[in-house]
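User: structure tokens for this one?
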Amino acid sequence: MGSSIDDLPEVLLVDILSRLPVEYLIRCKAVKKFWYDIINNPNFVTYYCNFFFNNKSGMLVSSYIDTALGKRDVFLSLLSFNESGDDISLTRLDLPLDWDNINFTLNIMGPCNGIYYLDIVPEALINPSLREFKALPDSDIAPFGTEYGHVLAGFGYDGKTNDYKVVKLMLLCERETPFTIWNCWRAEIYSLNANCWREVDDAVPPIDTDDGSPAYRFVNGCFHWMACDVISESEREVVVLSFDMVDEVFRKIRLPDIGDDCETIPYVAPYNDSTSIAVIVYPLQAEEGTEKSFNVWVMKDYWDDGSWVKQFTIGPITVVPVPLGFHRNNQLFFQDNNGKLVVYDPDDPQLQLKDLRVYGKQECLITATYMESIASLRRGNEFSPKQLVSFDG
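Assistant:
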């Protein structure tokens, strides 16, 4: 009597399923309840994401260009390319947004098991693989009429509860008199499982920050921002501020001696496939055409502030406004002075910048590594049919 696929050991069945494209996995979920349970298991979701992450190259790219008619053309696209950068394709995603009223770059955070957070109005979560788009509900935590001096956002995954969370740090401005303003930080967090916002119990440390790091900084269950620790009224220290998505607590990470802060600006980014963090000590923008070198520091032991090492030096290369972060195999992405997306490979003996033939307005290009994913945004708690919809692309 012949054997069937059901006779295979579960570990082998998982390996077979993990090699199938998302559209085939969706069909498999409808065939057998056993397959449905495997594919919906959070461990399989992570395994599947990691398999495709290690075997495919792609990015989500957000930017805009000013048209000849004086309008701004905002776009979010899926960029696919091979390791040599020769075979390139760009697919525009048709999200259910009012594009005519969006006049700035879509800030993308992710991937987190293939799910991305869009820091726009309305805020949203998307899974490009499943073409799912979920608008987040409004928060009613801050009192009506509260002014915000600054807002920092972060996005990550709580593996303990299988939940995706968005955290926001808000600098609240409250006028005690017409002439004085009192500032304080408040943090709130959105849970996909609960589909609502609530205030974070842990107090935000005294910081002074305007983080400009464009890379997605979720590492080891924590999201990260560059910040200035307020030691006293006259003393500040540059640190990395982290927020643990499981325990929902803040932590300050001390930096190594990175040099003269008058000549450089630090950016935090994930490193080594998001197992640790790196700080890119980037030179301040110089005259056009100027060539400079800069250092990349890596934290070898994520939980040890004393484990920073200078991993490598890049350059000299022509200074560009902002490094966009690391991609697979620790390739570093930039937008050059002509608005083109380029990649620098530290393992390339020729040390060349590869042109990926993607353009955008200067300093307004946002990238995120693309990750194929079966993780659904559906939780059965959508209060409006407009909150969770599908899109084309």
